[in-house]
Amino acid sequence: GAAGPGDVAGGPGRPDSVLVRAARGEPVPHTPVWFMRQAGRSLPEYREIRAGVPMLESCRRPELVTEITLQPVRRHGVDAAILFSDIVVPVAAAGVDLDIVPGTGPVVAEPIRTAADVERLRPIGLDDVTYVDEAIRMLVAELGDTPLIGFAGAPFTLASYLVEGGPSRTHARTKALMYGDPDTWHALCARLAGITGEFLRIQARAGVAAVQLFDSWAGALSEADYRRFVLPHSTAVLDGLADAGIPRIHFGVGTAELLPAMGEAGADVVGVDWRTPLDAATVRIGADKAVQGNLDPAVLFAPWPVIEAEVRRILAEGLAAPGHIFNLGHGVLPETDPEVLTRVVELVHAASAR
Ligand code: CP3
């Protein structure tokens, strides 16, 4: 058919959105596209509305969350919205004193490094994150036919921020805990899996159409260590969502060697960064799962003919998988020209129309 990006929707008696159908490997009128970090500093309207409001505070105001989430949908015509929040929001709700520092990222006042520290992480419930429930309900009403993606951080990536106390290039203290005190490591990850799992179930009950589990820094691990120290916990998170019946996207950066394991963790869609072509990724993951990706966000600074060739290459390679959701290989860089993003959306839709 000649369906456009907003023509189909979920709900009783109605077909699912293009994004959800691609995630399930069902036929779609065109390849759906959205961008990690599509809401954010690349948009002047975002910078304006965020002026003077700290990041964590903005995540706790449902009206503001709704407006920021809608901005890239209105501007770019993407096939999905992603909830404006941050991976550390549920951890803060669980009692960890932390802040999101502009230009740096999450900073934790008292890092978690011992069994006693792990005890400070309490489980969360709906009462701890009512603002997220409210924002999602408002968004689902506003978005109409456009699906809303919920998300959370995976246990490893969250553990890295908590153990290091902030962003880390080497994850040295995280690995020191993992190798030196495996019992405490597993206790920490089990608690994080509980928090993340509940946070995602709250989002599912509020009406998100799909979820993405961000294990951004898992690529720091070998496959053997990933399987031993991380996979069981991410599997617990994704298995805990099986009943929700919504697609689960599992994403990390630099994960070429981890793609099969990240699929096995219970994903319906595996997110791939720009280092691995999508056809090669599909060989690794297996042809029973969809893929998401994988334009290098830095390519958006290249001349348009280069961008166009890269988009067409990725669309062609994506045909190897049963379903393809077009995205970047990681988040939109703040200096990106938003008009280029809009043009990429138009190109993906036109070049993939079937
Ligand atoms: O549009 C979207 O993708 C939804 C919003 C979103 C944010 N953070 C908003 C945000 C999402 C999905 C995240 C997830 C997130 N947060 C991840 C996983 C994704 C990834 O990028 O790998 C990680 C590792 C974090 C931790 C974090 N929070 C970092 C590294 C930063 C950047 C720090 C900086 O200033 O450069 C943040 C802050 C943050 N989260 C911003 C936004 C829009 C920037 C804050 C601002 O605009 O002032």
From TrEMBL:
Annotated pathway: Porphyrin-containing compound metabolism; protoporphyrin-IX biosynthesis; coproporphyrinogen-III from 5-aminolevulinate: step 4/4
Catalytic function, reaction form: uroporphyrinogen III + 4 H(+) = coproporphyrinogen III + 4 CO2
Binding site for substrate: 37-41, 86, 161, 216, 330
Keywords in alphabetical order: Cytoplasm, Decarboxylase, Lyase, Porphyrin biosynthesis
Feature: compositional bias, Gly residues: 3-13
Xref: InterPro entries: UROD/MetE-like_sf (IPR038071), Uroporphyrinogen_deCO2ase_HemE (IPR006361), Uroporphyrinogen_deCOase (IPR000257)
Any one GO MF annotation of this record: uroporphyrinogen decarboxylase activity
Uroporphyrinogen decarboxylase (URO-D) domain residues: 32-41, 149-165
Keyword Lyase: yes
EC number: 4.1.1.37
Chief place of localization: cytoplasm
Record localization: Cytoplasm
Residues carrying the site annotation Transition state stabilizer: 86
Enzyme class: lyase
Gene3D superfamilies found in the cross-reference section: 3.20.20.210
Function: Catalyzes the decarboxylation of four acetate groups of uroporphyrinogen-III to yield coproporphyrinogen-III.
Family: Belongs to the uroporphyrinogen decarboxylase family.
Quaternary structure annotation from Swiss-Prot or TrEMBL: Homodimer.
Name assigned to this protein: Uroporphyrinogen decarboxylase
Gene name of the record: hemE
